[in-house]
Structures are given as C-alpha cells and as structure tokens.
Amino acid sequence: MMKYFPAWSVLALCIPAAAFTSVFRRTFYYNDDKLKDLTIIYAADAAAEINDHNNNFPPANLHQRNIVVLCQNVSQDVADGIFDVNNLLKGRIDVLARCITSALWVSNRVRTDTTLFLMLSPHNITIEVQGSCVRSLTPDERTMALYLQRTLWRCGKDKNNIQQQKGVQELSSKMSTGSGPDSSFTNNISKTPRSTYINPKSAPMSEEKRLRDMRKGRDAMIHRIRISHQGKSSLPGFILHQDDTLQNRLNKLESMSSGEGNGIWMLSETGDPLWEVLEDQQQKQSNCATKISTGQNKTTTTLIVGNQLGYSEDDEKLLIGSPSVREVSLGKLSILTSQCITITHHYLDRLFEIE
C-alpha cells in the first residue's frame, strides 16, 4: 500500500532548497562583482602606471616650444581665482582652458616639450604650465578651470579678503548712490508730461535688492571656493609669476630662444605666411636633426598669440619693435586662439619630425 506525503511536507522540503540556491547565487554573483571591481581597479592602476611611465620618456621631437597667450582685459575676480567653474563663459575662462588643452594635449598623452604662459593683463600675472611636470591632467575644460582656480587662489589668498571687502564696498556704494539701470527710471518718468504718481522708493529698492543678491551670491561663491581648495597642495607644473610684465617675459624668452631655433613668432594676419617661414627652416632642419639625435643641441621656438580681443596697442608696439620677434600669419582669416596653437603645433611637428 502506497503512502502519500501531504502537500505541506513537499513545500517544507522545497522552500529550504530554494532559499539555499538563492543565497548561493547571491554569494557567487557578489564575489563575481567584487572580482570585477578589483579587476577594474587593478587595470586602472596599471594604466596609470603605464601612463606615468610613458610620460617620463621624452617624445621623439625634442624641439622645445614656448607658447605665450596675451590675455587682455582680465577682471580682478578672475585674477584672484574668484569665478564659477560651472559658468566658464563669464570672465572667458573657457578661452584659457582651451589654450591649455591645445598647447599640451595630444592623443593619450601630454606634450612634455611645451610650456604655456598665460599672461593676465593688466594685473601683470603670468600662469606658467609646464608640460614636462604636470600630472593627472585631463583635457576637459572644467578640470582645466579648477587647476587655474587653485593656482590663482592659493597664490592670491592673502589678498582675497581685501578684494572681497573691496567688492562689498563697491556694491554698498552703488546701493547708497542708487546708480544702475533702474536709477534712471524715476528720472525719465519725472520728465513725462503726464501727472502720474510714482513711488520714489520702488525703483531704488529693486536696484538695492539686485545688488544685495549679487553680494550674497559672491560671498557664497567665495565660501565654496575656499572650502574646495582648503588644505590642498599646489599642483605640479602650475607656477604663478607675479609682477611679470611683457618686457621682462620677452627678455627671458629671448635668452631661451638662442641657438638654431626659430626665435620668437608673433601671430598676426599681416605677417609672413608660416609655411613660407618654415620652408626657410628646411635646410636647418637636417643639421638640427643630426645634432638633436646625438644630444648635442636643442632648439626652442616661441609663439606669441592674443586672446579673443587681440593685442593691445602697447603690446603690439613692443613686439613689433623687438628685433627678435618676427610676424607670421596663418592666413587672413581670424581664427580662435586655441586653433592657432593647434595649427602651429602641426607645422612644427612636420618640420622637426625625426624618423
């Protein structure tokens, strides 16, 4: 006679088996995911070590290059590092970030033979970015802006409090005088022939509120910047030079451009075509290549470009009057500063290519 097991006994046997299977699968997949995470971490570390190892070797082109960007009409807040990295158009921080990317970055590595100088006028401040010393540099504009901000903020932190108080005083003076776009509103209304009653405090109060909001926003931004850069060391390869005029920088560049290099080039729409200038260097290129391959000599070329505003009158007179500066042109069409740097790099790479 066959005995039948009740239904509840079958369920009692199946539930523990299913639970055990679920726990086993979770443990297996957890360990598998953990193994994948460790593999990714180890691969990233290995890639970073390989990248650092490759950056330690000099490139095949040992021709040294200096790129000077003359940045005109830079605001005091930008010179002090007080700007929003999420709004790079304000203060044209995007132009500075693109210049760094175009000057130093190639595919998967940084140019170790290039040094960039960002001269902030009229503050006589120069940011030097050495391609041979930078580490953990990424080509996105926001990271570049953060690096610039930390360099300017750390070196100018002693005067940031003074500039903050100065900004508050300027806003307070505007609030007290009632200057601004809304202050002329009541004056224009008072000149109208109609006898309309206007509250005299309505327009100044709106201007006062706007300036008060501006002051609060500025204070909040300074607080965020101070917290984000507090306790962080200076970045390798980023150097800030204060009281650095164009004449002093030009004297240093002239001493660096000695030898068989191309000297100092000033980009201008009315200069000599760059490809014709490089044709004159073809004969020097063969002799220079022999000396570079044996390590006997190094050449240096300096490129001077303006920002989106071009050159100032004083800077243009100084550069044109210098005997070591030669005007070169990439064409009659005005292009972006970052594009000028990229195209000049391309021509120099072709000229000094060593097979």
TrEMBL record:
Taxonomic lineage of this organism? Eukaryota, Sar, Stramenopiles, Ochrophyta, Bacillariophyta
Show the GO MF annotations.
S-adenosylmethionine-dependent methyltransferase activity; tRNA methyltransferase activity
Stretches of the chain forming a coiled coil according to its record: none
**Location of the region described as Disordered in the Swiss-Prot/TrEMBL record:** 164-211
**Gene3D superfamilies, alphabetically?**
3.40.1280.10
**Membrane-spanning residues:** none
Instruction: Report keywords, A-Z.
Output: Cytoplasm, Methyltransferase, S-adenosyl-L-methionine, Transferase
**InterPro entries given for it?**
Alpha/beta_knot_MTases, TrmY, tRNA_m1G_MTases_N
Where composition is biased (Polar residues), the residues are 164-199
Q: What is this protein called?
A: Uncharacterized protein
For biological process, the GO terms are: tRNA methylation
SUPFAM superfamilies noted in UniProt: alpha/beta knot
Q: Does the keyword Methyltransferase apply?
A: yes
Q: Does the keyword Cytoplasm belong to this entry? A: yes
